[in-house]
Design goal:
Length: about 400
């Protein structure tokens, strides 16, 4: 199956997450009015979804390894759609919260299946290029989701947003069944004992190089999430941009990630993914270091904005390469490895982001310093990773009934 077709279908699947997060943001006032709660209370529905989306991947990943990608992915879409329809009919905040958790579980099963499918089809630089192409498709979702929600609100009320999400999930299930799973090689699920659904995590956790990639992506993502958490304060509160200017600047950050994603795909034709990853992590850290200097010097807003775009843009090269590096060792446990990466990324980054709101207050410098600490950790993890690959692969044992990690193709 051509990579661009595979990327479109898988990108549409990954887009469920951003759509479920961002499409209903314009409807917060309407939801608060209908349910008789505050906007802050409605915000709990977002936190509930993210929490379930992160933790449920730990269940969905091993299930996809044992029972197959198609079963788990289509089950996730069905659960997501059913929960979306139930959220649309919620009469209270507690009811909405409960169904958002269920929706997060369905979304997690979908999210964790995508990198596992990629790992089933290819590895190394080829996998990194495919992850990049999927990311490029997925970038459309966070950029367009608020506009889509606003358009639905203009012609209907807020439940229409969730009916649209449910309908999208059902349509996607039909497309994947007929256009994807009937056209790609089917990996035979590993019929290991049920208890291995838990013990398989030990194999991933013991793999030092794979865990290095997972920790690296988590820290880089944490730095970006800290910025996203405080983006409204930085642009509107600190620099005084209007709401329309804030929307444009936020979209510019998404565009920067898309550009670096395209550059990364071209570089992967000539350079090993791990070398590009190291360069992207170092570039992100240098941009944050320059950002600290600009804040100390009270530099003009355009300079700070340019640095922030560089910081977020680097994620367009960091994510696909670190994903490919982490999953490259587990040809039959791609779901388990992807689940551990996804759950770690969401929980750690969410905790760091929440901590930053308490530590930073209403000052820009503490926010940037927290980003710098996260980025420094990613730089330290990036150094030495390629040299450890072959040594780690040689030391790795193969527990009975589990997948044997295989060393990736690394340049000499």
């Amino acid at each position: 199956m051509p990579h661009y077709q595979l990327a479109i279908l898988l990108g549409m699947t990954v887009a469920l997450g951003p759509l479920a997060l961002d499409a209903y943001l314009p409807a917060f006032p309407a939801i608060a009015g209908d349910l008789g709660v505050s906007k802050a209370d409605v915000g709990l529905t977002l936190s509930a979804y993210v929490f379930a989306l992160g933790l449920a991947q730990l269940i969905g990943g091993p299930l996809s390894d044992r029972y197959g990608r198609q079963r788990v992915l289509l089950l996730g879409l069905a659960v997501f759609a059913a929960a979306a329809f139930m959220v649309a009919q919620a009469d209270s905040l507690n009811e909405m919260l409960a169904w958002r958790v269920v929706q997060g579980v369905g979304g997690a099963f979908c999210a964790v299946s995508v990198p596992a499918i990629v790992r089933d089809q290819c590895r190394g630089n080829e996998a990194a290029r495919l992850f990049g192409l999927i990311g490029l498709v997925m970038f459309i979702a966070p950029a367009s989701a608020p506009a889509l929600g606003s358009a639905l609100l203009a012609v209907s009320n807020w439940p229409a947003i969730y009916y649209a999400l449910g309908g999208y999930a059902l349509l996607l299930g039909v497309l994947l069944h007929y256009r994807l799973f009937r056209r790609i090689p089917v990996r035979v699920p590993a019929r290991t004992p049920v208890q291995s659904l838990v013990t398989n995590y030990l194999l991933v956790l013991r793999h030092r190089v794979a865990m290095r990639f997972i920790a690296l992506q988590t820290l880089a993502f944490s730095a970006m999430l800290v910025f996203i958490t405080h983006a409204s304060f930085i642009y509107q509160g600190w620099f005084g941009f209007s709401s329309s200017a804030f929307a444009a600047l936020f979209a510019a950050n998404v565009a920067a990630m898309a550009v670096l994603n395209l550059v990364n795909r071209r570089l992967l034709l000539r350079f090993p993914s791990v070398h590009i990853l190291r360069t992207a992590v170092a570039t992100q850290h240098l941009a944050i270091a320059l950002l600290i200097l600009l804040v100390l010097l009270d530099a003009p807003s355009w300079a700070v904005v340019a640095c922030l775009m560089a910081v977020t843009g680097c994620m367009g090269a960091i994510v696909p390469n670190s994903l490919a590096g982490a999953l490259d060792y587990f040809p039959n446990l791609g779901g388990t490895a992807a689940a551990l990466l996804g759950a770690t990324q969401f929980t750690v980054a969410g905790a760091v982001s929440a901590l930053s709101t308490r530590l930073a207050g209403e000052a820009l410098l503490p926010i940037v310093l927290i980003m710098a600490v996260c980025s420094l950790g990613a730089v330290l993890l990036a150094n030495g990773a390629p040299r450890a690959v072959q040594r780690q692969a040689a030391m790795q044992a193969t527990p009975q009934g589990l997948d044997a990690p295989t060393p990736p193709s690394t340049p000499r």
